[in-house]
Amino acid sequence: MEFAYRTDVGRKRLNNQDYVGVFSNQAGAKLALVADGMGGHRGGDVASEMAVSHVGFDFEKTTTTDIEAIVKWLIFELQQENERILEKAQQYRDLLGMGTTIVATIISGTRFLVANIGDSRAYLYRGQRLMQITEDHSLVNELVKRGELTPEEAARFPQKNVITRSLGVNNDVDADVTIYDMEPDDYLLLCSDGLTNMVSDPQIAGVLREDMSLGAKAQELILMANAAGGTDNITALLIHQEGRLGDD
Length: 248
Hints:
Elements (H helix, E strand, L loop, with lengths): L1 E7 L9 E7 L5 E9 L4 H18 L6 H25 L7 E10 L2 E7 L3 E6 L2 E4 L6 H7 L5 H5 L20 E6 L5 E5 L1 H4 L4 H9 L4 H14 L6 E7 L8
Antiparallel strand pairs: 1-10, 2-3, 3-4, 4-5, 5-8, 6-7, 6-9, 9-10
Helix pairs in contact: 1-2
């Protein structure tokens, strides 16, 4: 199994509030995370770095490969991290109100879970088909689901960046967590909305279809987002299941 990621400040922002990481636990399970911070002139990058670093560090100490047990661990861990971010924000005035989205996958054997809070996304590319496997927790997505906006109107919606769930803002944490079976030659993409607001799903699928290294594909996605305007920080994390299932 191969991992590659790239993150970029984009063309409009002064600092990068995205954070990304890949970790292994004591039994060889893999965790990959992307977080997109928000709030304050430096609060967003603090919240996103805290989320990725703390969850990753705690995962490295775990010893299980049982995916159902890992789900329970992750839900508890996200609640703990939510409390840590809230506590940190109370200690420093310039961090007040900080929070972060988070999207994560944990891969163990032939199964993987995907968890998300906010509008950072996970995609599965399988059999030449790209599928979004997370649901955006955002105002614009709620309006589309209620039929108040068409997908075309949603793309131009002025409050597109308003999210309805995040880590570190409220006391309650509500992550969506789903378990999937892995298949040979699967690709997973975890990304911040700085990519998906600039690059369409067909364009993403086109990059994944190209004959180039995984790192080059991640870099190409960043370049495309910047070429389209680069209005936000951009992060793309790619995972490729090469060969037989269970191969590293």
